[in-house]
Amino acid sequence: MTTTVERPATSGQAEPARRRRPKRSPLAKREDRAGWLFISPWVIGFLIFTAGPMIASLVLSFTDYQMIQAPHAVGLDNYRELFDDPRVLKSLSNTFVYAAMFVPLGTVFALALAMMLQRVGKAGGFFRTAFYLPEMTPAVAAAAMFLLLLNGQQGLINKVLGWFGINGPNWTADPNWLKPSLAIVSLWTVGGTVIIYLAALNGVPKQLYEAAELDGAGPVTRFFKITVPMISGALFFTVITHTIAAMQMFDQAYTMFYGPQQKATASDESLVYMVYLFQNAFQFFKMGFASAMAWLLFVIILLITFLQVRIGNRYVYYHGER
Question: Keywords for this entry (predicted)?
């Protein structure tokens, strides 16, 4: 009696051999090494001046460190104190109010300047330079200049308003006008945004405007139906960057309200988050608590940016998409 051994059925095609990664040529390897060599200054700088301090601040946020003594661990005490300190919540609310004022105001102001700049013709080069030059001005110098311009008694802005019969407010002393004055000062730095918007406006196809005009669309309709959708990518980018900058605003507020001459009259209505963080770190020497504040701000900015990206992507038009 013979037995037969059944072999498992096999498909008609043999199993393909596993693909091997092709060997990189010596030229490609040399190009890789050259690439890493060229970016190594940035990588080293990032590790030393960005990643290293971030890791150190994260570690310090779990310690009590007063700079004159070695840090000792306190667990989550610094983070608990964040929610118990009323000035943390006050400074956060002031920062949110300032950001809610500056981001839309700065966006509209920069877009208006860009649209005006698009129509100046041959003088465009001069005005592009003139609008961008304020970006090169140190923030402290600009804040000091506006501290004089916004003076309630002798400031130039109130004098100009007086020519039209308007009694200007006390910008830098009235608690109701402290955050609006900061938003006005921050408009000094929108020159870079103007250039971005101008490039986006110049990239809108002229045929779209001609077709809309033939269909009877007016200037307002053309603006909202053509201009805004076509430059929505630039608007989206600048809104995110303006929001991040507003949440980290420090120079203007500190110079205008917490400088050597203003410390005695500083009000909590002008206390923004970064100023209070600075005070805890370098005036109260609470480095651990200040590090916890920094990481709280990092998480808040991360969440806000995430929401902006999720919402904004629904309305942004990219030229490469169909």
Answer: Cell membrane, Membrane, Transmembrane, Transmembrane helix, Transport
- The set of residues, in sequence order, having a beta carbon less than 8 Å from that of 190 and lying 6+ positions away, is 106, 109, 110, 113
Q: Which two tokens stand for residue 321?
A: 């998409």
Q: Where are the domains of the chain?
A: 32-73, 84-312
pLDDT of residue 320: 58
Closest CA to 185 of 129, 139, 121, 122: 139
Residues 253 and 275: beta-carbon distance below 8 Å: yes
Query: 263: pLDDT confidence band, cut at 50, 70 and 90?
Result: low
- Does the domain formed by 84-312 have CATH 1.10.10.10? no
Q: What is the DSSP string of 230-275?
A: HTHHHHHHHHHHHHHHHHT--HHHHHHHSSTTTGGG--GGG--HHH
Please count the CA atoms within 13 angstroms of the CA of 212 that sit on its side-chain side. Answer: 16
Its pTM stands at 0.84
What is the C-alpha separation between 225 and 21, in angstroms, rounded? Answer: 50
What pLDDT digit, counting tens, does each position of 33-91 carry? 999 999 999 999 999 999 999 999 999 999 999 888 888 999 999 999 999 999 999 99
For the chain, what's the residue count?
322
Closest CA to 256 of 168, 167, 186: 186
